[in-house]
Amino acid sequence: MSVTKKIPMRQCVGCREMKPKKEMIRVLKTADEGIIIDKTGKKNGRGAYICSSKECLEKAVKNHGLESSFKMKISDDVYELLKGNI
Predict the structure, then answer these.
(1) Closest to 38 (Cα-Cα) out of 10, 76, 3
(2) pLDDT at residue 75 in the model
(3) Mean pLDDT of 9-23
């Protein structure tokens, strides 16, 4: 009997589409470091996911996707950091 492994899905804060977790960028809110990009996907904290495309980043900025996920104001430095990783 073959067992198929479940692929974890996450919703993009920009386009609101469900995609596999490994294809997305995890943005993380931590108590001590603030807002960072989690490349490992395993750090502790509140995470939000965004697709690896400029269109989704622009949509996330326009609809305040990260701000609503983290319930706080997001600085422009975080968006510049994301632009560098896309």
Answers:
(1) 10
(2) 87
(3) 94
pLDDT band at residue 1, thresholds of 50, 70 and 90? low
Give residue 31's identity as a one-letter amino acid code: A
- Residue located via tokens 């997305």: 24
Q: Which residue's entry shows tokens 């993380």?
A: 28
Report CA Rg, the chain.
13
Structure tokens at 55: 């269109």
Name the nearest CA neighbour of 78 among 4, 13, 19. 13
> Do 27 and 47 contact (CB within 8 A), yes or no?
yes
Alpha helices in the chain (DSSP H): 54-62, 65-70, 76-85
The overall pTM is greater than 0.90 = no
Taken in order of first residue, the domains within the chain and their CATH numbers are: 9-85 (3.30.1230.10)
Mean pLDDT calculated for residue range 52-56: 92
